[in-house]
Amino acid sequence: MKILFLGDIVGGPGREILQRKLPDVVRELEIDICIANAENASGGSGLTPAVATKLFNLPIQALTNGDHTYRRREIISLLEKDPRVVRPENFSGRAVGRGVTVVESRTGVPVAVANVIGRVFMNPADCPFAAIDKLLASVPSEVKVIFVDIHAEATSEKIAMGWFLDGRVSAVVGTHTHVQTADERVLPRGTAYLTDVGMTGSHDSVLGRDKDRVLHKFVTGMPARYDLATGDVRISGVVIQVDPDTGKASSISRVSVSD
User: Fold this and answer.
1) How many other CB atoms sit within 10 Å of the CB of residue 94?
2) Gap between the Cα atoms of 60 and 19, Å rounded
3) Which residues contact 239 (CB under 8 A, 6 or more apart)?
4) Helices 49-56 and 11-28 sit at what angle, rounded to 10 degrees?
5) 68 annotated active-site
6) Domain ranges in the chain?
7) What are phi and psi of 186, to 5 degrees?
8) Distance from C-alpha of 217 to C-alpha of 56, rounded to nearest angstrom
9) Which of 68, 176, 178, 203 is catalytic?
10) The domain made up of 2-202+233-258 is a member of CATH 1.10.3720.10
11) Which pLDDT score, from 0 to 100, does residue 181 have?
């Protein structure tokens, strides 16, 4: 089976290219299940129920999040009611939401989708390694295919998570930095790994934001409103081939789609 994971969807430009292109991508690549990181999907920061509905009207089966999970209060009801939307497992145990869900592929294969957040250069969170250990123990034994989104800043922390989970999950893919890395590989025990999948949004930008506004902030040190950029919009993703009987990955390849 083939899993397509889409990098951080950044606002309207990211959603609009998915509307135009994703159905064709899923069909042409013969994708069985599509997962996306949506923590920046609403206005470039956060996720609302209305935007989640638009994404689920596309061939997307599950949404992950990150440090902007609670940027918009509307997400609280979504996290309470919709099991297809997960947030980092290592947030406070009192935080609303869940860190793992099980969804079905188009052929009926159950797939566990899990989310953790890093601690290096990030806001305080519980240990992601302890959290993922506990989370995996809760996944039903009949679910062999397990996908993990680690939303983290530090490359080293993401790589460490890949090695920590090698042979225990089907894939570990990083999000958050919005820049697609070129280190995709299948680790020795059968776990597909990529440090960062990149972003689905404007690449004529600084991480999806208007580059002139960001440059003003860096050059002057003065506050600036980070408006969304709209040029050179691309889908960034990764396709992972997995044996549904064993949960082991056999290949991983990066995807980039432009208009």
Assistant:
1) 5
2) 11
3) 2, 3, 4, 29, 31, 252, 253, 255
4) 20
5) yes
6) 2-202+233-258
7) -100, 120
8) 36
9) 68
10) no
11) 98
Residues shown for the chain: 259
Q: Please identify which residue in the block is written with the tokens 């406070």.
A: 92
The string of pLDDT tens digits covering residues 176-203 is 999 999 999 999 999 999 999 999 999 9
Residues 171-189 as b or e (16 or more Cβ within 10 Å = b): bbbbbbbbebeeebebbee
pLDDT for res 188: 98
Percent of the chain with pLDDT over 90: 98
Residue 23 main-chain phi, psi, to 5 deg: -55, -40
Radius of gyration of the chain (CA): 17
| Residue 259 pLDDT grade (very low, low, confident, very high; cuts 50, 70, 90) | confident
CA atoms within 13 A on the CB side of 111: 31
Q: What is the pTM of this model?
A: 0.97
Contact (Cβ atoms closer than 8 angstroms) between residue 86 and residue 99: yes
Strand partners, 186: 192
Beta bridge pairs of residue 151: 117, 175
Do 7 and 17 form a contact (C-beta atoms < 8 A)? no
Is the pLDDT confidence value at 205 over 90? yes
Mean pLDDT for all residues in the chain: 97
Cα 140–Cα 144–Cα 146 angle in degrees, nearest 5: 90
Express each pLDDT in 128-158 by its tens digit: 999 999 999 999 999 999 999 999 999 999 9
**244: which 2 tokens?**
């549904």
